[in-house]
Amino acid sequence: xxxxxxxxxxxNVYTGFNVFQYLTLRGILGVLTALFISxxxxxxxxxxxxxxxxxxxxREDGPKSHFSKAGTPTMGGALILVAIAIATLLxxxxxxxxxxxxxxxTLAFGAIGWVDDxxxxxxxxxxxxxxxxxxxxxxxxxxxxxxxxxxxxQTPVETDLIVPFFKSVAINLSWLFIPVTYFVIVxxxxxxNLTDGLDGLAIVPTTxxxxxxxxxxxxxxxxxxxxxxxxxDVPGVGELMVFCGxxxxxxxxxxxxxxxxxxxxxxxxxxxxxxxxxxxVAVAVRQELVLFVMGGVFVMETVSVIxxxxxxxxxxxxxxxxxxxxxxxxxxxxxxxxxxxxFWIITIVLVLFGLATLKIR
Length: 361
Hints:
66% of the residues lie in helices and 2% in strands. It has 14 helices and two strands, in the order αααααββααααααααα. It is globular. The relative contact order is 0.16. The mean pLDDT is 90.
């Protein structure tokens, strides 16, 4: 909203306010604003969650080192969403359709996660939302986002599937854009949710990927950079750099309290929302395949669960000692911090590889 205010101030008060029209500055301010909100509001939220005994339940068949985490406040993902929403609304251009589609999709998935957490932690319903109900609501939100992106597309490239490393390889998806986008958003949401099992394990890769997507947003939203790099020129998508910046700032602020040993967990309200946010931004900037690479840790965690379930149902045997994959390594004897940091290192490498696709074409 401050974009509109600074425009008026530039025209009527002082031309120096024009500096706030620069996307890079607003992206940085989005990071700092969300970080500041998280650090200020975080302690009060943790105290309130503790007061109402909204604590984490620990699986009895999980690693024994997790038993001490029972009762740790959860649903802290609400803090991340509040920080993202405020920072985005303050510094992004409210006239941009991408901003609203991405923000509303993120909040919609956050609402689904909040209901699930509320049922499990406050109403003491161990199952929370049923798998069918959760998937149905995710499908509604994912399809709505996909339809909005499809029917508001202004150029053909906005619905093409871009293949990394090739300048001129673009697959015209036509109406298939909607199911592909739905799969990316819902799949990304659940993948981050599966990864959220150790202190800081999910939030750091999420912020790394969001930071990389901010670079893609800025480049694709700038016609000169897009033509030079051979990437899609998507008018207006640059504003999502502010959203990505807000996500990075909110994530870092949450990490302050979520770092090992965690004072708070994000819960489904945070994990489902952040995964959906990464998915819808990647679609908007036409980098779904690059997201698959940069989010390799999320992919590994999801595939480990799929393989474990399929193997047990078909053969009665388990491939891993426990799924998702991070629990397998814990049961192999890896200390929790080692698992976390090594997964972070893998993400750094994959994000750098994803960024390399900007130039290697």
